[in-house]
## 1
Amino acid sequence: MANNATENTNISIDLNADLGEGGADDAAILACVSSANIACGGHAGDEQSMRDAVRAALRCGVAIGAHPSFVDRENFGRTEMQIPMEQVFDEVLEQIEALQHICATEGAQLVHVKPHGALYNQAARDVTLAETIVKAIAAAGSQLRVVGLAGSELIHAARRAGMAVSEEAFADRRYNSDGTLVSRKLPGATIDEVSVALQQALHMVEQQAVTSVDGTALSMQIDTLCLHGDGAHALQLARALRAHLSQREIKVTSASK
């Protein structure tokens, strides 16, 4: 991706959103993005919700990805877990394959995998967990693209395995000075003001950088930008960001295209 803010016609970004998690604005947010990450049973979702999400993504021409999690519906997959790597491999692969099967029956193609919640954040720093997740994704299909936190161990593990990657940033999350996300357990971890999240998102896209909570300027490769569908003003942010990107002649397109 180009990062010269004075030549916006050369800039493109993949906007992604999580789907099938019970969000009331799923359909409207889907119209604003280029990729969807579909919950596939670990933290949310079932066969019907996956099928509905796949059909909705197909109607909108949006790239389809799997959004596997620790199997922990009670905590929405947001509680860190220490479980055997064999179990992680089996559970991640099972979730991906469940969505792959539905895609096949609906005439759709699964193109990427983005872990959810605690699985995502642990894999950002845990080499062994990251490598296990990558092995499970590769077992489902070596052509699948791995989506992970920019600069994270998951991205490094996927590259070592020869997998395609998309490095991700978050429009509505605060960052620590090491490039990790501020824990949701801490106040201010999420950005609730649409104008502030919009400003951060545009800075990320145009400058390939973000400012951490302590003021550190962090440069990073940003291929895809996540818009959380469960935020208080998620739809408002999605529409505002899409409009501003259009005004700046920044192309919104799936990284898989």
## 2
Amino acid sequence: MSAALLALADGRVFRGAACGATGETHGEVVFNTAMTGYQEILTDPSYRGQIVCMTYPLIGNYGINPEDVESRRPWVNGFVVKEACAYPSNWRGRMRLEDYMKEQGIVGIQGIDTRALTRHLRDHGAQEGIISTLELDPAGLAERARALPGLIGRDLVTEVTVTEPHGWSEGAWDRQRGYVEPPAARFKVVAYDSGIKRNILRQLASMGCDVEVVPAQTPAAAILERRPDGVFLSNGPGDPEAVPYLIESVRGLIGKAPIFGICLGNQILGLAFGGATYKLKFGHHGANHPVRDLLTGRVEITSQNHGFAVDPRSVARFGLEETHVDLNDGTSEGMQHRELPIFSVQYHPEASPGPHDAHYLFHRFIEMMETNRCPNT
């Protein structure tokens, strides 16, 4: 194995071995606490602009398969693992993690103390970093990392969104048949693609939604011309305040159709109402985050991936009330409008990867569209 370095903007350097493609990459370094789901993480557009460190020490033990991708290509800027499994074993696996990373041009590093890196990020915050197999001068790499732009103010949605509208016809996964054909559609849903994950689309289709995916730049008027039963606001990368065109479009849809938002969609919705967002110290990335539903008192174990959050106090005067809260740090994890058919969550109920505790939210969206449907549709 060739040598590799990971240098952080604050000067901390980790020495290891190359994993995946050789070369150099940079991005905001964050940690993910999930034990599985590395393939979904690699292909989640929300990780655009970030280098992901997996806290679980053995990654790649069930290999890579063509079914568990969450978008048309990998988006993660870099990947950090303690050990990339060289001999995966799973009936669905088709190739090794490291071979996949080489094939897709993902630069990574293994053999470092990922626990030490995680503790450092937890104590000092997520920050810019560089992985390199080319330049092995620690001081030089750290100096270059310090000069990198952070995520604040950067519109990364334009890099991951589709360029043309398209439909979706794939349903949920079945062990015997793979992804199956969804049932006949009962609702027309327009989904903004800010980096939408495929399993969100599968969940909507499986519940009887005819889904049309549109670019993030689509204006509100073009959405309303389609006469949807509901509008979905997707997850995505970067700073929500750096996406003013989407904020303006969502503002034009408020009160015109039922709206359901996930992750970035939650933040965009808050901003569209006139609220505020802020950046978290190291974000929430993992499949084991406890969240309390304030409406029922029920605690859910959730999958999360966000570095920004909505300030619930900033949206309260606009009719939005907090519905979910993170039990680790008190961060707002969901909200709903007191009168309008609008709600959103900061976490990922599509469970890819992650638990299924929050799947009921898709049922809530269906019920909302049913209740607010025009009689002649």
## 3
Amino acid sequence: MGNRQKTKDKKNNIFGTGINGYSVISHRLLPIAYCLLFILSSCTPAQEKLYKETRTSMYTIVSITVSSDSEEKAKTAIDRAFNELDRLARLLNFYSEDSEISMINRNAGDKPVKVSPETLEIIDKALYVSENTEGAFDITVGPVVRLWDFQNKVLPDEKLIKEKLKLVGYKNVIVDKEKSKVFLKTKGMQIDLGGIIKGYAADKAVEVLRKNRIKSGIVAIAGDIKVFGKRPPTGSDNGLWNVGIQNPRQKSDKDEIIAAIGLSDMAISTSGDYQRFFIKDGKRYHHLLNPRTGYPAYGCQSVTIITRDAAFTDAFATGIFILGHQKGMDVLKRLGFDGVIVDKDGKIHATEGIKDKIKWSNGVLE
């Protein structure tokens, strides 16, 4: 892969030295991410430089990298992309009383709420994922998720879980596209877009970068990554942006990958049981909850999804994790998405479309 790329913003660089000299996103700086992916890169020609800026946005760590022949053009585009992320965060934030999501939640069981095109679009996408994962992905599961205290390693009361499950059900989210309104049928229901908002925002940030004459780059919102265009190649390099997938059962503090793949104009997200979890009485409790039971799903260790729409990679990674690898692979095949699933026993399953494009760290696909 050659030497690691040198980015313009050294002070705010969150890339550290990883396996074989690759650059990786440090998981120590991404404590609330649903996934962790590594961006692996190499040097670019003199006429094109990589400019990268890392900020706190979308309530997490966001890194935007662009390839440009002009520092001024790169800075302007990156600033505008971050402005878009901040705008979306205000619009879609569950925790802000002024957001449209909070307005919808306050009026649950009472009346529909008129919303912006963006709010309508992301909710519509979320419901599409729910329909295609048998409800395994559900933006109304938030009241149950908030019963779990992963920081203090406390199991919620079973009666409380059963009570909150009565408020869960994506089919009770009514979207009126013609009137641009959203209605929650049951009083007390709540929408929380945490499982799709980062991917959706990455899509929108890339749109802004393209409009500002940036032809290639990366937007990484926590572990949800959208790459576009091709990195200027060097020598025999094909110019693809190389991304690695974390080992869900790495045995040390060092970042370990199980595979790497070159991408262009694609998005990639991973959901795993290793980001937010605790062990109690020998059992792993993690944040990926089954909306039907209110308890963690145990069919997989991690799920990585690759397709063009980052909102879908983000949400389907969670939904397919909860479905399990067999049903999950069926969904990927039916929708034409690519993916890598590490099942509960640690066996790796990959879709046919990427088997010959992935470089496996151990050289073997189980």
